[in-house]
Amino acid sequence: MRIVTVSELNAYIRDILEGNSLLANVWVKGEITNLKYHPSGHLYFGLKDKQGAVKVVMFRSRASKLAFRLENGTVAVVRGYVGVYERDGQYQLYAEDVEPEGLGALYLALEQLKQQLEREGLFDSRRKRALPPVPGRVALVTSAVGAAVKDMLIVLQRRWPMAVVLIVPVAVQGEAAPDQIAAALYEVSRTGAADVVIVGRGGGSPEELWAFNSELVARAIADSRIPVVSAVGHEKDVTIADLVADRRAPTPSAAAELVVPDQSDVKRLLAVFRLRLGRGLDQQLRGYRERLQRLQSRKGLADPQDWLCQRRKDIVDGFERRLVNSMRGAFDRDAARLSTLVGRLEAVSPINTLARGYSICRLAGTEKAVLDAAEVRTGDKMHVQLLRGQLFCTVNEKTETGVGTGGGSS
């Protein structure tokens, strides 16, 4: 009896499994469970059916090429080889490719991307901008040699030859197409080289149109500062680019018709405007003419000299009234002041004092009133002023004792 180690046993089983041609490239169908996206980029999940389950590993080099995102509960077909993970002593399926059962991988990837972009609001009509009514510059992001660019140039030249057309040549199918289309859209937006952009191509198979379903192109359209019209394929073909763009046209020719006006329609509209403008001017001139006639019939305009004379008389009369009123007011104010001053003067008037029984006594030959008996001597001649008349007296006697005492005779 030979005793082997665990490692030897696991290695032996590995050699048996990996040496089996059937297990070297096997397709296994089951429901995805316990899905884990590892930070390293590897995928770990299980496949199960009603009777059993198997562990699956998909290394980063293969997982990065998946066109869609795996989800738990998805029934998928996994292609790979069976091997042994010797550390744990268990066999597992090393996945090389995964396909959703009954649904193409590209279609599933498309649906997943649509759901993601819709959640982010890139399809929301409220974020979409109106196209310029009369663009001066139109950029065509498309193949330079396809029928689509020729059709668009014919339509643009016929409808609005005044527009400057900028052709930005890109690949519209193949692996390089998404990068080229996105780069062209970013460049036109950055430089402001156009007023509106048409991005698209003619019809084709779903695979040929796949560049316009890429996330890279969708985000370039959404980030554009210039309105974008998507024109991909025919009426039945609706791509993610159509859903993100500001406007969608079923064909490139229809896109060209959408972005520029028809010069014939503009000419007819200008003719209508010219007719309306002429009628409006005639009506306005008639109104001005009637108003002028009414003004001419007025007396002031018919005979301006009389109007000026009457106007001057009215002005002079107004000035005269204001002057008289002003002078009357000044006289009344001065009279009131004079009356007040007269009253004050009368209150201190010597005449009023004499009328109350007082007299003014002066030395003869002087104008100075005598207020004190000490100012005169016996024998002096005195002049006494009364209210009515004067007295001429001689002082025979005087008393200097005080106010209101004693007396004298003349």
Compact summary:
It is built from 13 helices and 13 strands. With 410 residues, the chain is an alpha/beta fold.
SSE map:
Layout: H1 6-18, H2 21-24, E1 26-37, E2 43-48, E3 53-58, H3 60-63, E4 75-85, E5 90-100, H4 105-119, E6 137-142, H5 147-159, E7 164-169, H6 177-191, E8 196-201, H7 215-223, E9 228-232, H8 240-244, E10 247-249, H9 252-259, H10 263-296, H11 299-302, H12 304-347, H13 350-355, E11 360-363, E12 381-385, E13 390-394
Parallel strand pairs: 3-5, 6-7, 6-8, 8-9, 9-10
Antiparallel strand pairs: 1-2, 1-4, 2-3, 4-5, 11-12, 12-13
Helix pairs in contact: 5-9, 6-7
Protein described:
- The structure is a single chain.
- Helix content is 42%, strand content 21%.
- The chain has 410 residues and is α/β, with parallel strands linked by helices.
- The protein folds into three domains: 98 residues, OB fold (Dihydrolipoamide Acetyltransferase, E2P), CATH 2.40.50.140; 128 residues, 3-Layer(aba) Sandwich (Rossmann fold); 62 residues, no CATH class.
- A five-stranded mixed barrel has the order 1-2-3-5-4. A five-stranded parallel beta sheet has the order 7-6-8-9-10, sandwiched between helices. A three-stranded antiparallel beta sheet has the order 11-12-13, with no helix packed on it.
- The C terminus is likely disordered.
